[in-house]
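Slide 14.
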Amino acid sequence: MTPELGIIEGFYGRPWTWAEREEAAVCLSFHGYRFYHFAPKADLFLRRRWQEPHPAEDAVRLASLSYVCRAHGMRFGVGLSPYEVYRDFNADVREALTRKLAFLDEIGIDDLAILFDDMGGDIPDLAQRQVEIAHWIGERTVASRLLVCPSYYTDDPILDRIFGARPASYLEDLGRLLDPTIEILWTGEEVCAREFSTAHLERVTAQLGRKPFLWDNYPVNDGPRMSQFLHLRAFTGRPASIAAHISAHGVNPASQPFLSRIPALTLPMSYEQGDDYAYGAALKDAATKVLGPDFAETLIGDLLVLNDSGLDRLSESAVMKLRARYSAFDHPAAREIIDWLDGGYRITQEIMDTQ
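Slide 15: predicted structure.
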């Protein structure tokens, strides 16, 4: 059994272009992906400046992306991060939120994710406040599916260190009070989970009172550390057995749109093949489909360098050799590799702090 699969464009740093988004949606729709959630950290009008209207050009392109997704059998959704509105959900905030919801309705959305991540959370009644906002939004959106990302969306203690200690019984309270039709996003035992086990997902289901909607942070490669690597390997640690324990599986892609398709194509294989899934063979199959046989063979031969070594560990001569090697391929993915080698996808802490 394969769960509903989709893309959650939710990474920091340099965003995809509108054309790259539409092309990714079309490509992945042919490989079993059924939703596309637009939530890039670089879109400030969905995050720090959410109360301001989107520029007219962006509104047109969002509507176009929605149309393309729907035309190819994918639900289109948007992730909205109304920064810390739970601290004071006053009349002015509600008016601004009403305007933003009307805008999203107009461009055409099937899914709306209210994202409470990346915000301070050390408030005793945090769950109750967030539930009130989610229910208020649910009464005013045309989206047929509403999702909530908790402030504490993983067991990972790094969130407690950055955003304050999570309130006692936060997840249990959120699950108990939130309308059971509203999905809850979850990234696993870590922000970037190495694997998902049925035991873990069963425990989270009990806490949330519903199956979690996975926000899978692979192959995403944002952040000062991860942007040093190209995450190209096939999916592992996502056994087909978890399908019965999740409501859907969303993939947060890498900064490189074409290269992201390689691991993305292996996730449906993992579910479909079950115990017969072999990640090496899946990688070769996916890479060949995305790149063609010659390019795929070259890329797989360089996995230890591109995927595992890290950009800062490459000597100048190694970078020059790789640039020359991939310049021989007239392909968007080759240009992404060269751009990465040149530092074009490097992410700094300043970028993360301001997006």
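Speaker note: The domain at 5-284 is CATH 3.20.20.80 (TIM Barrel).
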